[in-house]
Every structure is written in C-alpha cells, then in structure tokens.
Amino acid sequence: PSTLPRTISSPANSQPSKTGPGWQLVKMLTAHQSWVMTVAWNPKRPTLVSGGLDDTIRVWNWQTGQVLYTLAGHDRGVNNVAIGTGGQVLASCGDDAAVRVWNLSDGTLLHTLKGHLRDVTAVAIGSQGFLLASGSKDGTIKLWSLDKGNLIKTLSGSAGMIKTVALAAKDDVLISGGLDNTVRLWNPQTAANLRVLTGHTNTVNQVAVSPDDSLIASASKDRTIRLWDLATGNLVQTLQGHMQEVNAVAFFPDSQRLVSGSSDGTLRIWDTSGTLQQTLTAHINPIHGVAVHSSGKLMASASADKTIKLWQWMR
C-alpha cells in the first residue's frame, strides 16, 4: 500500500507556485551537522534514511519531519546507504572502511563487515534480499551475505577507486563506476568482468539501473549523464545541461524518467529519450544524493548544505 499522503504540509516560507504541474518543495529536513551524502526511501513504510559526514545515519518520519532514530556506529563519514526491498534491513558504508547492516525496525546493529582496506564509498542490496555489494577506494568490490554477514566474493580488476555500485533486478549483473571513467558490468556469481562501457571523460560518481532492467544511467564528473542499454552495453543517450559535476542519479518507477543531482545545486528531471523536463534550483551547495519514492510522486535530495529536501509532484 502506498504511504503517500494526499498532501504534505508546506514549510511556511514556500508557497507552491501556480505555474501548473511540476515539482514543488514540500519539506526540508534538518538535523545533520555536516554534508548529507546519501538518502533512501523505505519502500514499505513512511520513513526516509540519510547519511552524512557527521558520521551519523538518521531515520526520519518524512511525513512529520521528525528523526525517529540516529544510528551511530561509523566513526568517520557515512558515504552511502541502501534499504532492502522488504524495508527491514539497512546497509551503510563509510570512510572507516566498514560496512554496517542494521535492523531498520528498531535501529539495532546486525553486522559490521570488515575487509575493505580503504574508505567504502558505495553499497547496494540485491532485490532478492540475500546479496549485499560494497565498493571501495581500495579498488575492490565485495559481495556479502546480507543475513549472515559473511564475505562471499571479492571482485577486482577495475583500474582505480570504486565510487558506485548497483545490482540489476535479478541480481545477475553488478554495475560499478569509478575513477577510471568507465562503467563496468560484472557477473556476481563468477566474478567475471562482462563489459567495460567507455565514453565518460572523468570520474563516474554514481550508476543506477532502471527498474525494468533495460537501462543503466551513469552520472559523471564530466557534467553529463549517460544512458546505456544494459543488455548490449550500447550508449543510448548523453544528457547534458548541468554546469558542474553530476553526483547522483535515480530512475523513476516507470523506467521512463530519471532525476540527476549536481554540484551546481540543481535537480534535473529527464525522460529517457533525452528531453529535459524540469530544472529545480534545489540547494545552495552541491547535491550528493537523490532518491525517488516508489509512488513516483516524491523525490528527496541530499546536500552539502546539511539539509534533505523533499519534492512532490503537483498537478
């Protein structure tokens, strides 16, 4: 069941404009004491999770704007969070070289996964709920059992630091990006590097897979987002418009649209044919994380301005 309310109360200083349908700011969440790097919606309940360079993870009731839990455990900045499809399990990673797995219902720590030699920059949870992937500045990707917390496999062979990892819907392809400017596709079962997608001229900051498993989106320091055919590896579109590096990208549930967040402080909503649908002047500082709610009617953006902003589609 959708947890989307009919309306969200707007902050006093933001009157929705009367310019017709579009995305409107409906809430600003403040509690982090430093840059907010990552944000994720819980697919099963009205909570939102954020992580930041204040070393904390915060679990919010996004309808009220209240912090339900503050999860402390990382002793250096939190770079990324991921929520399992069941909404019960949270994975986080940080500059302390650790991956942590939490029970999202009560905030208890389930596992601390050690093995990476440097900052862990990215985590992803497979849709089947068993597989956890982590990527690190040590140049490796590690695959872990989510429930037992044991290491299954280490993938290496990427040239340089990993910035981002994602798992395709069937958990049969793992996608990574990093400082070698490429997007790499891996077989998680065999650890084989299936494909290397080249075209970006600078670091790949984030990759995302469309919910229908047809497209990969890659956001880069070269100021572009590239769309790739997951099956063939062919380049489908190059999305240009951001004035500074693109740090974050997420697909909508319909797999036809995506949102990107940049160091230029804007969010841009695109369709997969390459059309820019809307530009939101969202933050005064770089945007480091974006997430789309399962309803497709809400977005969240996380920024170096220490805030998370919630955006709602208004007709």
Account of the protein in words:
This protein is mainly beta and 315 residues long. It has one domain (22-314): YVTN repeat-like/Quinoprotein amine dehydrogenase (Methylamine Dehydrogenase, Chain H, 7 Propeller), CATH 2.130.10. 0% of the residues lie in helices and 53% in strands. The strands form 7 sheets. A 4-stranded antiparallel sheet has the order 1-28-27-26, with no helix packed on it. A hairpin with a 4-residue loop joins strand 11 and strand 12 (141-145). It is globular and about 50 Å long. The chain starts with 21 loop residues before the first strand and ends with a strand. Residues 1-18 have low confidence and may be disordered.
The major sheet is characterized as:
4 strands, antiparallel
Report the count of strand segments: 28
Amount of helix:
under 10%
Q: Low-confidence runs (pLDDT<50, min 5 residues)?
A: 1-18
Question: Quaternary state, please?
Answer: single chain
Helix/strand order, N-terminal first:
EEEEEEEEEEEEEEEEEEEEEEEEEEEE
Number of domains as seen in the coordinates: 1
Work out the strand percent: over 45%
* CATH superfamily membership: YVTN repeat-like/Quinoprotein amine dehydrogenase
**Overall residue-averaged pLDDT value:** 93
Morphology: globular
Helix/sheet category? mainly beta
Q: What is the terminal separation in angstroms?
A: 22 Å
Count of DSSP helices? 0
The CATH class is identified as Mainly Beta
CATH architecture: 7 Propeller
Question: Would you tell me which CATH topology applies?
Answer: Methylamine Dehydrogenase, Chain H
Radius of gyration: 18 Å
